[in-house]
């Protein structure tokens, strides 16, 4: 907490001197419209709040229509920046192209989908992708832990997971079951990950999955399972998500700024700010910051987009 | 608001020869009432105790913040909700009441098209709200190019609650005794004067109750507004009807989904605010009703 306070103070000081110095006192106005994935929204919200500390007059509403719903608006030219928890799909690319919307893909942070079990679960230290698939694949009849692994005790398995509309569900099913959207259906789904937290925390044989930030916030109530994607058991952590060893459940999170919107100074400055401060934004939104390779790629993407926008 | 049992000849006669079923029936009725009241009580007690820590001025003087939960507030959502309800009322009450007057006082049930209109209105009242959201998005936001703005939201919610307002207003107008109309007409008033000076004032209590019920539905809606682009994080109040906005149900929904426990407390506090606004609206309706009932 003390660290956070110091950080805030330092930032505020930074922001002040920045505004007076390099900004030349030019106060920006206008609106930067952001919409898209609710997973990415915390990142963009934090970015907008930090940006507002420097440019108080710029208004940055952040919507959460979901990645798909957001792309629909973005490709209709209704929003300036799109939040996405997966890369743009082909039909969305076509929709954007038909409206002449140009954009660039910016990976701005990483997330580690975390598989969690009850605190008193002493047996499931590590699960392989095959075991997870056995549990979650469509038509799976696994309903007891000893069916997952004969060495596990006899304990009814209670499953909690993401709602089918979420990018989390898409990603998990794609990586674990091999096909996006395919999953057994006799589990308790919820769009609100807190429901999954409570469900798993309340049943000894519980198992669920969600974004890393929900685990961090509830680490005292739950236990994260190590995942073996073929290269040995790896626990979800900032380090493992960053260096790519937490496979296959770590994923990048994206924003897609529109080239046309970048012509407006408030959007340009906001996107530049987002790129420059991405590590701090990710940390404060409780996500995993980019690794150096990703960082270089992000800078590259910004340069490409700026040249497209004629900036 | 106490209900007194009037001593009509029937109740008096019944008291003379009570049957064993009578007290049992009364218990069933009381139990039904208790279910509604007890659940409302539990809900109120729960949200107030959950949100107590944050039920202070920060809630309505500050804007939402992801970085500083202790500073976060719901001002933009409160202002957005008040705007939307005000605009929705301004659109749907005049249109709804005028439609009801036409259907009750002018339209003849012998024409098939009037019966069709009636049937349609009754069906529309049962259409799920998300369908209105799709309609608003397609016709208002995109077709008329109103965009994802306050005015689109208010017009969509007006459409959503219009059937309820019409049905309630019709019931209220129908309940005005025909003798009042006949008396007014006999004294030489025109039909318009009769409606405006006699029928409508007598129907106001019923219309007010129906309108408040309808607006109470509108105030709690989140689904169509999510589709219409109400944003979840907004740190400014709408200044005109073409601005972006958010409303309390969406702000509450967003806070509940956050991983941090502080936001869950905030969500409960915001629910209390939403209930307070509802209560305020209900009091206005009751005040209106009493005022007009005394006159009548």
From TrEMBL, chain B:
Keywords assigned by UniProt, alphabetized: Cell membrane, Membrane, Transmembrane, Transmembrane helix, Transport
InterPro entries linked to this entry: MetI-like, MetI-like_sf, Phosphate_PstA
Transmembrane region(s): 27-48, 77-103, 124-144, 150-169, 199-219, 266-288
Lineage of producing organism: Bacteria, Bacillati, Actinomycetota, Actinomycetes, Streptosporangiales
Gene assigned in the entry: pstA
Claim: Ion transport is one of the keywords in the record: no
GO cellular component, one term: plasma membrane
Name by which UniProt lists this protein: Phosphate transport system permease protein PstA
Protein's UniProt keywords contain Transport: yes
GO biological process: phosphate ion transmembrane transport
PANTHER family for the chain: PHOSPHATE TRANSPORT SYSTEM PERMEASE PROTEIN PSTA, PHOSPHATE TRANSPORT SYSTEM PERMEASE PROTEIN PSTA-RELATED
Reported function: Part of the binding-protein-dependent transport system for phosphate; probably responsible for the translocation of the substrate across the membrane.
Database matches in SUPFAM superfamilies: MetI-like (SSF161098)
Family per record: Belongs to the binding-protein-dependent transport system permease family. CysTW subfamily.
Organism whose genome encodes this protein: Actinomadura soli
All copies of domain ABC transmembrane type-1, residue ranges: 78-285
NCBIfam families referenced in this protein's UniProt entry, alphabetically: 3a0107s02c
